[in-house]
Amino acid sequence: MILPIRAYGDPILREKAHEVTGNSPELQVLIDNMIETMRGADGAGLAAPQVGQGLRLFVADLTEAWRALPLSLRTEIPPQPMVCINPEIIETSDEQAEFGEGCLSIPGLIEEIRRPWRVKLRYLDREFQECEIEGVSYTASVLQHEYDHLDGILHIDYLTSERRMQLEEKLRDIETGRVRPSYPMQYHISPDSAT
Ligand code: ZN
After folding, report:
1. Which of 22, 36, 57, 75 has the fewest Cβ atoms within 10 Å of its own Cβ atom?
2. Model pTM?
3. What's the gap in Å between 166 CA and the centre of ligand 1?
4. How far is ligand 1, taken at its centre, from the CA of residue 169, in Å?
5. 3-state secondary structure of 4
């Protein structure tokens, strides 16, 4: 089932998500729905808070980002799409890189975001097996973007205050549903109540 994606401005996008405490049929359904929702929205990743669930869980499809890497940088990645439960960042490189990032909760806004170029994550897959993934370049940027959602951090938080000010009106339009993507969204503020 495709779930509506919470738009920028929804308080759940700013909350720290809770650890997933155990497997359940409901959790597996949520994971399936999140994968379907991510695919339906043509996204590279989707975190549970974006569908209104304050859980430390995200799904990602690194296939495209991975294929865009030169052969020498294609680190081993698990079958995609991947499911990351209770992920922890265990290593980041000092070296940083900047990539254009979008967010399904902030449609139509692609911004260059500077982050560590390499990241290592430890997480549980959907069978609750402990896994590790090393992402570099674009794949590292997707993994860090999704991880951030679990701490209530959005990619626009990394922008300079000057850039944020330039985007203020655009963000307001997104928040109030004046920007309509092709996938279902849920708005915290309705366009009618916005002034
Ligand atoms: Zn996002």
Report:
1. 22
2. 0.95
3. 20
4. 19
5. coil
Q: Cβ–Cβ contacts within 10 Å for residue 195, how many?
A: 4
Strand ranges, E, within the chain: 5-6, 45-47, 57-60, 82-92, 96-103, 106-116, 118-124, 130-136, 185-186
Q: Which residues surround ligand 1, an ion (CB under 5 A)?
A: 103
Per the annotation, the verdict on 98 as an active-site residue is no
Q: What is the CATH number of domain 5-183?
A: 3.90.45.10
At 50-75, the pLDDT tens digits run 999 999 999 999 999 999 999 999 98
- Segment 155-171 shows an average pLDDT of 97
Instruction: Please identify which of the residues 132, 146, 162, 175 carries the catalytic annotation.
Output: 146
| Token couple for 22 | 């155990």
User: Distance (Å, rounded) from C-alpha 188 to C-alpha 12?
Assistant: 10
Where do the structural domains in the chain lie, given as residue ranges?
A: 5-183
Q: Tell me the CA–centroid distance for residue 146 and ligand 1, in Å.
A: 6
Q: How confident is the model at residue 161 (pLDDT cuts 50, 70, 90)?
A: very high
